[in-house]
Amino acid sequence: MLWAVAGAVTLGFLVSLEIAARHYGLPGPITDQAEEVIFPPKSGFLLYASLALTMVVLTWRQRFIALGVAVGIDVALLVVRWAADIRITEGHPFGNGALWVILGHAAIAVTRRTGRERVLLLKGVGLGLLLVAGRKTGDAWLLVTSKTRPAVFDQYAATADHALGNPSWVAGRIVRATGPIGGHVLDYVYIQLAVAAVVVAMYQLRNVAAERRFPRHHLVRTFLVIGLLGPAVYMIFPVVGPVFAYGAEGGNWAVANLWPDTPPPINAPHPIPFDEITPRNCMPSLHTAWATTIFVHSRKGPRILRYAGTFWLVATLGATLGFGYHYGVDLVAGVVFALTVEAVLRACARGWDRTGARLVAYGATVFAALLASYRYLPMKMAEHPWVFGPLLIAAMGSVVVGYLRTTRLWEPQALPVRTPEPQPELV
Hints:
Helix 3 runs parallel beside helix 9. This protein has helices spanning 2-23, 29-35, 44-54, 60-83, 96-112, 115-148, 154-160, 167-191, 193-204, 208-211, 219-236, 242-245, 286-297, 303-322, 328-350, 354-376, 378-383, 385-410, and strands at 151-152, 272-273. The chain has 18 helices and two strands. The protein has a two-stranded antiparallel ribbon with strand order 1-2. The protein is globular, with a radius of gyration of 24 Å. By secondary structure, the chain is mainly alpha-helical.
């Protein structure tokens, strides 16, 4: 029943975004996904990552067969496009095969499986398709933000960012000094964040095929919920980012061409009009939120997975700031947002109690306070950076500490092994 309700809500949400996108003359998430059955996909890596999630319910033999079929279909389509002289101007020349195999498993589940096996296979298919749908809905959300929010709050965020020392400007100069190599590495990390999440999720779901059930909580759940709820905050606090509002990328709409060389002056902020193309997708930084959840979920993995989770978090923070996509205050809000969502889902998985409700309420309060301070106290924050800067870090740190303390209480305690007492022997 729970999966049926979740499926119905997801379908309704996708249909709503499809209607909204078509209202502005562009295809919505459903159309985009349907086109990738034949046309070159925007991200072939994401489709193969989705196939990997679907394969967690399969045996190793079935996985090798599924992967071989997916690669074979991609090779066949590549040959057909080459023979027909079809040039791929955007997107990837692979990935269609992965989508075909996922849809094929859905057909197999309906026609060849029954009972729990059918449900398990459909869950695997749904998990893979949800990852792709999350990317498509995100694109549609960004379109809606650019069309419905003509004014942006970048001056408020930039003014409040003085309390943190204008980290985007500092990181921008550092990334530029590293040259093309550093930029390419950070760009790859930034773009392939979903693939990193799948690697961690694959470790968490490694026993699904053997146990024939999913764990109560895993990374994909948090990843998708963050993508679903985050864009709603974009509508409340629309921000385009320093590279657009204060850089050359903003063109004639930019306040000035200051990023990353000159921090913006401290003046009374006000909403500024912007184009209807650039997404208002900064507050909070969802890339920071996603990277934070990858880091959190990688803590219980092997050492190499923990190192990878740490690297992806640090590199993502460097990319979001160094490319001018976010202000420092966006990142602070993103961490609080991620841990609050994670707390909600973990509390739902284990059952609500007073500690879970208190943690969620505190995280939500801190997040709301951050947004309110950015909007209504930016001048105070900029004029007193030695007061408000530590306060921002302390607020974020308090949520981190609260999350760690509460979740440690939720961990099952290992019972000490009792040493058997020596027993007298019969003589």
